[in-house]
Design a protein that fits this description.
GO terms for molecular function: ATP binding; ATP hydrolysis activity. By secondary structure, the chain is an alpha/beta fold. It folds into 2 domains: 180 residues, P-loop containing nucleotide triphosphate hydrolases (Rossmann fold), CATH 3.40.50.300; 146 residues, P-loop containing nucleotide triphosphate hydrolases (Rossmann fold, 3-Layer(aba) Sandwich). It has 14 helices and 10 strands. Strands 2-3-4-1-5 form a 5-stranded parallel β-sheet, with helices on both faces. Strands 7-8-9-6-10 form a 5-stranded parallel β-sheet. Helix 1 packs parallel to helix 3, helix 5 crosses helix 6 and helix 13 packs parallel to helix 14. The N and C termini lie far apart (48 Å).
Length: 341
């Protein structure tokens, strides 16, 4: 089992993290302190207590970085991973990798603990109580194996859906034990992908269909290399007919991906686009992304208009919108620009 950092974050360091708010500065301090504690040589008394099976009460079982999209949580997680390696082998995985496992949670956690000294889990999701219960099982097993878990999420543990829908044991674990055993750190601030210079190699056009389509046609004419044009219906069809890993492998063979007429009608639409955009954002060989839409991405799927599972997906979709702003220069196109685009 090989669980390595995505290419985008392999150069992440504490030094390159630029905190913009007091909470981000505090998160940086806590992450550095956690690394220092893990790398510290234990005293003879601590080693004796470990041999006798006594837990080290000074060191939490892990870190849990929680905050909105675009505040640098994944950067801090990757920087922690980089600071610990190679002295301590670190597994780095997205929560979707964990939730795709078919073996029991404790078996997966034992297999992970056999190979790695630290587990870094990025983007813990909240849209499926069954997966959250699976996560609880992995966390318990890793703690029993003395493998620290470092995680990022947009929500605090006690806000998981499983705390409302799960059984009593899972509810107690997520509401109280995680807070007691993990250092939960808020990472607040503005979305850096919207406020600072980022790569934005692609383009997004928002406005009347004829104007945005003309802008996209011009971009397609200017593009060189392998390109594919999809309508949003084509994207929905592809995500239905093709396994996700196979689909992403196919898309990263392109130089340009054009998606025309993005319109989110329901939770299913949002989730399909979310999975594609998030995968491309993290892949080192992703094509340039172009899209057209009648409305700006922030208006596609508003969490305030949803409840329950749909609200959970909508809140997660906010991260996808943030990543679209990193991947694409998004601008409105007026009807009068149609002949100029």
């Amino acid at each position: 089992m090989t669980l390595t950092l995505p290419e985008r974050f392999r150069d992440a360091t504490f030094e390159s993290y630029e905190p913009q708010t007091p909470s981000q500065a505090e998160a940086l301090r806590v992450a550095r302190a956690f690394v220092a504690e893990l790398r510290r040589t234990p005293s003879w008394a601590e080693r004796l207590r470990a041999l006798l099976g006594a837990a080290d009460e000074r060191l939490p079982q892990g870190l849990y970085l929680v905050g909105p999209a675009g505040t640098g949580k994944t950067h801090l997680l990757a920087a922690t991973c980089n600071a610990l390696m190679p002295e301590r082998a670190c597994a780095f995985l997205h929560s979707s990798t964990l939730f795709r496992q078919t073996e029991p949670p404790d078996a997966f956690a034992h297999r992970l603990a056999d190979q790695y000294a630290v587990c870094c889990l990025d983007e813990v999701e909240i849209d499926d109580p069954a997966n959250e219960m699976r996560l609880a099982g992995v966390m318990k097993t890793l703690a029993a194996r003395d493998v620290p878990l470092l995680a990022t999420s947009n929500v605090a543990p006690e806000e998981y859906l499983a705390t409302q829908l799960g059984d009593g044991r899972v509810q107690r674990f997520l509401r109280t034990e995680v807070r007691d055993a993990y250092r939960v750190v808020g990472v607040r601030g503005d979305d850096y992908r919207r406020t600072r210079a980022v790569e934005q190699s692609g383009r997004g056009w928002v406005g009347p269909p004829d104007a945005t389509q003309r802008a996209m046609r011009q971009a397609r004419a200017d593009a060189t290399g392998a390109a594919r044009r999809w309508t949003f219906a084509d994207l929905r069809r592809a995500t239905t007919d093709t396994a996700h890993t196979d689909l992403i492998e196919d898309l990263v063979g392109l130089d340009h991906l054009f998606i025309e007429g993005v319109a989110i009608a329901d939770t299913d639409d949002a989730f399909r686009l979310l999975r594609v955009v998030d995968a491309l954002y993290l892949h080192e060989d992703a094509p340039r992304l172009y899209f057209t839409a009648a409305r700006p991405p922030d208006d596609w799927f508003d969490p305030d208009r949803h409840a329950g599972l749909a609200r959970a997906v909508a809140e997660k979709f906010d991260r996808t919108v943030s990543r679209l702003h990193a991947l694409c220069q998004i601008r409105p196109v007026e009807q009068k620009e149609a002949g100029q685009a």
